[in-house]
User: What shape does this take?
Amino acid sequence: MKIKIINKSHHPLPKYQTTLSAGMDLYANLDESLTLKSLERKLIPTGLFLELPKGSEAQVRPRSGLSIKNGITVLNAPGTIDADYRGEIGVILVNLSTENFTINNGDRIAQMVIAKYETAEWQEVSEINETERGTGGFGSTQL
Assistant: This one.
């Protein structure tokens, strides 16, 4: 899939780190470093603008290393970038640790996964097929 991209940052384009990677790293595009205090959230710019093909989305997800080592995660994970959005990609980061965390220009802050999707069309009916699970909710499939 080819995706048009404008890169207004001074950082490389997102790329897959290995041949089997699902996500590409996104970099902070900052004029100066910023600090996330405990439980604070901020929108971090990337300097990237996309034109996604119809039927696709970009999902912004946390980086596992930042999460486990520093308690930094993407607040609305996964964040969805719709195919008709043309603004700058921003990443909402939150600090879930008790320590301040500094984000520097060029830091890898999240990963982006490109995914295809289907557009649903509702078919209103009076009943739906039964299943073994039925109406069992949270935790109902545990043995």
